[in-house]
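Record type: monomer structure entry
Structure origin: computed from sequence
Chain ID: A
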Amino acid sequence: MKILKWFFIVFLLLFTSLIAYLTLIFDPNDFKPELVDAVKEKTGRDLVIENDLSWTFFPSIGIELSQISLSNPAGFDAASMLKVNNVVAEVALMPLFSKEVEIAQLNLDGLTVNLETRKDGQTSFDGLDGGATQTKATDTDTKAGGAQLASLDIGGIAITNTTITMTDAVAGTEQVFTMDKLTLGEFSLGKFAPLAYELTAELPDMTLTSQGEGMIKIASSMQAVELKDLKIESSVIGEGIPNQKLDTQLLAQIQVLLDKKLLEVSLDELAVADIKGSGEVKVAYGSKVPNIHGQLDLGDINLDTFMPADKATEDKSNSPQASSNKEPDLSALKLVNFDLAMTVKSIKAANMLTSNWVMKTKLNNGVLNMSQLTADLYQGKLSASAQLDGRQKIASYSFDKSVKGVQILDLMKDAAEIDLIAGTANFNVKGKGRSLVVDNIKKNLAANGKFEIADGALYGVNIPQMIRDAKAKLSGDLSSSGTAEQKTDFTSLTGSFNVAKGVVSNPDLLMASPLIRLAGTGTANIVSEALDYSLTTSVVGSLEGQGGGERDALHGIEIPFAITGTFSEPKFALDTEALFDAKLKQETDKVKDKVKDSILKKLGGF
């Protein structure tokens, strides 16, 4: 017991002597001017430490700083870019006897970060290269009796209770984030150190949680920051989020070149909900408007999962009419320039499936150009180019689109649940318009194009059967009624069209089949979806088809045929009265010809 007693007495004496040495002989405030000068030299900013540095002895030996701030550039709303309530630097004991400070652990609490972007494009990061001052400290600058900092190593950093405020005067936005925890392992310039964080943000309409880990390296010159194997997992929850929740994961390599104002990101792995991909992005942020160049390669995308059918129906039925008549604000298109190339394995939207997407887009000064868009579409090929000009309050657009070899029936079934027409379709259209409000798009669109459908069928009507029934009634069989499938086969269906003031005009519709010919003109109203076609049909050969025997009695007679109704419920009508008049005229002409021939024969006999 006496040995244990003397051990504690000796330990207490040594600890008391150490405290006396540190407090009386080694004053940490001797390093305060050097810290301020070093920050000024490296960043060009003013470091303010309001309170004196002091020693802490529990739970470990360290130097405590409080009420610290790093200034913003002149002219910014917030005077300080950084503020810290309290900093404790735990130091290694032995280097202190050589008047060297080796920080074993740096703990920051109550960090406040104010990041501003002014209307002229200047940001809080501008000038961090230290250009504001070129004066370096020398040995003669050190006051007599003052200590000189021989080396500085950090064994680790832990930051808690951090608030980050991001204000953008150009966009008129303010975002506030809370960093629950940020840890950095053993750190020194020019070497990688482990980094981890946990972040939450409570925004007006959503909640963000994010956590990540990776390796970070800051160059000895302080002009480059590199993040290696950065893995981030995030989740956003809110009523405005598809399915009220969206999870994302990424694995990235990031490099920031501060002297060149260049950010380079390599996305090794990217997952947004069920969408997976990879790519790379470069951001040059030195100019007033950032310039972004990127390549993104994505897998299968099912957009239907982001907007469930029942939710979409509910939103559509409950949305006020006023909101649909409001032009979207495209002013954000002027805040960035980008050049993006993207490939997508497949996209499913509104139950319509496309694959092998290749897209190239470029945004410059508020004008978005899509120079290339190609995709496989229902055994055919889609090709398009387009431009959107968002510089004015009401946007304008133009496009040039074509499809080749598309199975039109499968497309219409998936896109609109309509089985109106089948066949292999070739289609091209070129147009332009103003306004992005749905109703205005329909009214203001001006376009023209051509279509050709081969080896197909028109569903919902059997024109040959309608003619057969009419023919039977002309013969006196009023009970005749066909039971054949309501479908009209054709070998080709062609025409041209133009769009103006919400109406599609088709002046030269022509349908050919082994049994009949159908030709005429018509319109389709995009706004009301009304159809109005006035056509004529005529019989070719026999209505019974191949092997039907002699030429049909109705051969050569043009029969009026009308298409009315709507896109989803078209109505077909054969003008039997006109057919009767045409048949009567045909028979009358035959009788006249017979009488004429008979008279001529008699006259020839004289």
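Annotation 1: The first strand starts at residue 47 and ends at 49.
Annotation 2: The chain has a mean pLDDT of 78.
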